[in-house]
Write a structure and sequence with these properties.
alpha/beta, Arc Repressor Mutant, subunit A, 23 helices, 3 domains, single chain, 12 strands
């Protein structure tokens, strides 16, 4: 029997690759992994990796019906290389540079260590989004001996691993590089030193510290850890990881870790390379600099579903991650919910289906786009959500905070976004003579409309008014409406705004604008 066509959605494309691997290897269950470096606070990129992996995981279950696990792995045994810019009590961390993150005091004063604090932050926001995952700590896994067998194997393959890594390093780093990093028994620092002797049978390494003192250290039980690329490969091998995503900046690391994983005798996981997020200046987002949006900042101005929508879109294309992305992502999500309900037979190709793990809630979506609410908030200078609800109920009489909980959240977000971003940026301009004539025409057209005229009919009338006047293009007419009446460069469909705000109120808005001298007269 021929297989049904694969839904046209990237999570299904990835899941198909994994299904083929599982069948070839006879796997009853597969393991997904995501990695987190807790030297800085969790950021949206970390959330994005878990979200995207979860969507592939659900697509895999849908395709195969087979079980799987998702391991959120924290590399919290890494040595702290520099003090992050965005933490309090930075002077506390300076004296602990080089030590594992779980053996450094918490500058926030809330957990046993800096690593534990950041791990808790990671788990907190993953739990807040309802992800199903298992948390894993590198420090705990090393200390419990869960990597001991794999570490012995690293020692057995020590020279082969060196042969892969050394050609990729500069002369200075090559002189000190080793796949295994001992923890100094006195200072607790993760030592970046050459290894003088390897004993796979005893599972020990011999090395010297900066004072020339010679030590023989076991690699078992947390007394040593693997260097980054070898560590990643060792983990894949030890845990049997089948699928892991990574950013574009780690392409070379993935290649090397893949080679090392094969040297260790294991099959590397299927990978997926996603593009990096950029800040408002077009620079790569860094968790140590804290130059991106935090999850908390996004959720002040937009619902969780909008963040998920942003993450779903074109993961292999670099995207600017800044506050102005929130309204667009929110309305994309709202539109996708409507499309999924209108065409359930193609819902598996719809981002909303993946965001909600195949079960879009009945109360998801909104009868009013977020951009429209922002325009309304801008016109009425909304300081409180209740200032919008009178207009909303006239537009959609059955809409209340109880019957439309998602809309109620959007109203809260719209007021916050208006106060912090729209109001400070409002710049009204006067209309020129062509625009004044068109606005007067529009006011007269609106006065002749029956109460309750649908938004689409209003939109059509607005188009017709624009066509009657000598604008270079219709986009210039709509630019006039947004800039002259709303004080902003762009907005959603103006017919929908008129239906929401009110025909009579919009006529008043136009009349107020026409009281100002034309821009040509002012010039």
């Amino acid at each position: 029997m021929p297989q049904p066509p694969l839904p046209k959605a990237w999570p299904f494309e990835e899941a198909q690759k994994l299904a083929e691997r599982a069948e070839a290897l006879g796997l009853a269950s597969v393991l997904f992994e995501t990695g987190y470096g807790p030297s800085g606070l969790p950021h949206i990129g970390t959330f994005g990796e878990v979200a995207r992996t979860s969507w592939v995981r659900h697509a895999y279950t849908t395709l195969t019906g087979k079980p799987s696990r998702l391991l959120a792995f924290s590399d919290d045994m890494d040595g702290l290389r520099k003090v992050p810019d965005n933490v309090p009590n930075r002077e506390v961390l300076r004296e602990f540079l080089g030590r594992p993150l779980t053996r450094i005091p918490d500058p926030f004063g809330t957990h046993d260590s800096f690593g534990a604090h950041n791990n808790a932050r990671l788990r907190g926001f993953l739990d807040g989004f309802g992800f199903e995952y298992e948390f894993a700590s590198a420090s705990a896994y090393y200390a419990a001996g869960r990597f001991d067998a794999a570490l012995r194997r690293v020692l057995e393959c020590f020279d082969e691993i060196l042969a892969v890594i050394l050609p990729t390093l500069g002369p200075e780093r090559r002189a000190t590089y080793a796949p295994i990093l001992p923890i100094h028994p006195e200072t607790g620092i993760v030592m970046q030193v050459p290894i003088e002797r390897v004993d796979p049978d005893a599972a020990t390494i011999v090395w010297r510290d900066e004072a020339g003192r010679r030590f023989e250290t076991s690699v078992l039980g947390g007394a040593a850890k693997c260097q980054w690329k070898a560590d990643w490969a060792m983990r894949w091998s030890a845990l049997g990881v089948d699928y892991e995503m990574s950013g574009k900046d780690l392409i070379d690391s993935v290649k090397l870790s893949t080679q090392i994983c094969r040297i260790l005798g294991a099959r590397p996981p299927i990978g997926f390379t996603y593009e990096l997020f950029l800040d408002d200046q077009g620079q790569k987002i860094s968790k140590s600099r804290g130059n991106g949006l935090s999850v908390e900042e996004w959720l002040r101005y937009g619902p969780p579903e909008s963040l998920a929508q942003f993450m779903y879109n074109a993961p292999q294309r670099a995207k600017r991650l800044y506050f102005d992305a929130i309204p667009r992502a929110t309305d994309e999500y709202v539109a996708n919910v409507e499309r999924a309900r209108a065409a359930p037979e193609t819902a598996q190709a719809n981002p909303a289906w993946h965001i909600h793990a195949g079960q879009i809630p009945d109360n998801a979506g909104s009868p009013i786009p977020f951009g429209m609410l922002l325009n309304l908030a801008s016109v009425v200078n909304a300081e409180q959500p209740q200032m919008l609800w009178g207009f909303i109920r006239r537009y959609s009489p059955d809409a209340t905070e109880q019957t439309q909980p998602f809309l109620a959240r959007l109203v809260e977000h719209a007021v916050a976004y208006y106060r912090d971003f729209v109001r400070p940026a409002k710049r009204f301009r006067a209309a020129d003579d062509i625009e004044r004539a068109a606005l007067a025409d529009l006011a007269e057209t609106l006065r002749g409309m029956e109460p309750g005229t649908p938004a689409e009919a209003i939109q059509t009338a607005i188009y017709e008014v624009g066509k009657r006047h000598p604008f270079p293009a219709l986009k210039d007419w709509f630019g006039c409406l947004y800039q002259v009446l709303l004080g902003q460069e762009e907005g959603p469909r103006f017919g929908g705004f008129v239906a929401l705000y009110g025909v009579t109120e919009t006529v008043g808005l136009i009349e107020t604008a026409l009281l100002k001298p034309s821009s040509e007269a002012a010039a």
